[in-house]
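Quick one: structure tokens for this chain, please?
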Amino acid sequence: MKPKCDDKLRAIAEATFALVEQTGLSGLTMASIAKAAGMATSTLYVYYPSKDALISELYQAAKTATAQRLMEGVSDAPTLRSSVRCMWNNMLRNRLDHYAEVVFQEQYYNSPWFTQGSRELVSKLFAGFFTLLEEGQRQEQLKAVPTPMLTGCLFGSVRETVNLIRSQAIAEDESALNMAFSLCWDGIKA
């Protein structure tokens, strides 16, 4: 069997993310993905046997890349607050730079495709993130609330900050980002 072409795999991923951003996951078809990726539908089926297989594999790859981006530089931060700020900045950058990919992940998370296996993948990929939050709680630097609530506060802050930047309600500058993170930190610190 001929190896799969990385350029075509990338084109399929980018087309899928863009289409999900525009029309949502439920409206996605293999024909529309193939057309947007610049290939025949039959070629797309060589790469992925079904829509289910395609979106599940893309979710795993996108979530893996997101987890890696999220933790970049975090271990070098000298304090818990600076570690959380580094993660917050990384989440913000990831959402701004890979917006369609993030929209895809969120739609997948809220769909029937998100299974117990998906939860286990997220737990494994984000173990360092969860460990940092739990350590902050043990040190009594972060609120003693369930970890998913801390996670929701962080991701929600980033999501809304990006929405404000994308709608041009706030500038993407140091002052605005410092204010946004400060509001988030005040919400999670003990």
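The chain has a mean pLDDT of 95.
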